[in-house]
Design a protein that fits this description.
Blueprint lengths: L3 H13 L12 H37 L4 H23 L2 H5 L3 H42 L1 H7 L2 H19 L6 E8 L4 E8 L1 H4 L3 H49 L3 H13 L1 H10 L4 H33 L10 H20 L1 H8 L1 H10 L7
Antiparallel strand pairs: 1-2
Helix pairs in contact: 1-5, 2-3, 2-13, 2-14, 2-15, 3-5, 3-7, 3-13, 5-6, 5-7, 5-9, 5-12, 9-12, 12-13, 12-14, 14-15
């Protein structure tokens, strides 16, 4: 089950049935509604609001720094899609505040936003997951071939890759925007005109489209997760080896300084066999700055990996257990898990500013300079 159906099917449930009580369901209707209020209309709404500002700041800071390397390009691309995701999520969850004004208006807003915002959130998640996989591969290459990756992955190459990923992945799903039509109709329950949506003739004549959509919505995150896991393992291993190399180097240096004889002997060996030292440098040729960047992006990658686990688990549960779906035996449980998946999605899309600020000194300095928070040291 792809995430774009999560809220869409809930709205359809409201339109088809007014009360869904299944004795065999793990969760009750009241628990489902409470979860929707707490997780979706409060937590997700607040996180989206924060994400709009945090991603805007990230984009402004990277733009100020000038996109001098591939890292700035790729992370700006991720932040742009995270911004789209947070804006769409925030707009969709205006249903909650609008209920305080008018139930009919909130109902209409829910239906209209589902047609546009809900799918936009899902497609943004797919794009960012693939971009995260690209960032993981990019960082993996930095630790495997650090001396070559600088000229292989130039800012222009990184820009082309990020644009290609965005166009291809988003293009795989954009056709889904055309499966609904929105109508205005009088609703006796609200005693006023409300907006509703229905499947149009295009969707009715292309039933196979939904199978393609479900397959693509499952395939992209799962492949991205596998790539991220493999790359993360390689990066962690290489960083560990680099740390061990530095530790051995420091130990040897301290030992060699104990006596002048040992120091002279070591100097003679280095001059006598420079190829050995050159080979060592190439193996461990990761500068301290690059290591810090890799560690920072490794945190970003791990967060994406953690975010994808509940999504993939939800997909697998839907395929393994037939009744784990909307309007079936475990309707309420599936709805609650849907709200939970959205929490992971939006938190993942809003925390990059915090990571960059605390783990990148240049990002922190630029942020303070832009917003007048420079401190004198």
């Amino acid at each position: 089950m792809n995430s774009s159906d999560l809220l869409c099917q809930v709205a359809l449930c409201k339109a088809v049935v007014t009360s869904l009580v299944m004795a065999s369901d793990v969760a009750s209707d009241d628990q489902r509604r409470l979860s929707q209020i707490i997780l979706d209309l409060v937590i997700n709404f607040s996180v989206c609001f924060f994400g709009i500002f945090s991603n805007t700041i990230v984009i402004v800071v990277f733009t100020k720094q000038g996109f001098k390397d591939s890292t700035a390009i790729s992370m700006t691309a991720v932040s742009l899609w995270d911004l789209v995701k947070c804006v769409a999520g925030f707009m969709q969850r205006l249903e909650g505040p609008l209920e305080l004004v008018s139930l009919a208006l909130a109902y209409s807003w829910t239906n209209v936003s589902l047609v546009v915002c809900n799918y936009l959130v899902s497609f943004s998640c797919y794009v960012t997951s693939v971009l995260a996989a690209y960032v993981a591969v990019e960082r993996c290459l930095c630790v495997i071939i650090p001396l070559k990756v600088k000229w292989l992955l130039t800012p222009k190459v990184a820009l082309v890759i990020c644009v290609t990923i965005s166009v291809v992945v988003f293009g795989c799903f954009v056709i889904i925007f055309g499966i609904y039509d929105v109508f205005l109709t009088f609703d006796p329950h609200f005693n006023t005109t409300v907006a509703i949506f229905k499947y149009n003739s295009f969707s009715n004549n292309n039933v196979a489209l939904f199978g393609y959509y479900n397959m693509s919505g499952t395939l992209w995150p799962m492949v991205s997760l596998v790539v991220i896991i493999i790359s993360t393992v390689i990066i962690s291993y290489k960083l560990k080896k680099a740390a061990e190399f530095r530790y051995r180097t420091k130990t040897i240096t301290r030992s060699s300084m104990k006596t002048k004889t040992h120091q002279n002997l070591q100097t003679f060996q280095v001059k006598d066999n420079p190829q050995s030292m050159e080979k060592s440098d190439k193996t461990q040729g990761i500068s301290k700055r690059d290591q810090q960047v890799i560690k920072m992006l490794l945190v970003v990658i791990v967060i994406y990996m953690v975010n994808l686990f509940p999504r993939v688990a939800n997909y697998l549960g839907k395929f393994i257990v037939f009744d784990y779906y909307y309007l079936r035996r475990y309707h309420n449980l599936f709805s609650i898990m849907g709200y939970t998946v959205f929490v992971f999605d939006y938190v993942n899309g809003a925390v990059n500013l915090i990571i960059f600020y605390f783990m990148s000194s240049s990002f922190r300095e630029t942020t303070r300079s832009l917003f007048g928070c420079r401190t004198n040291t």
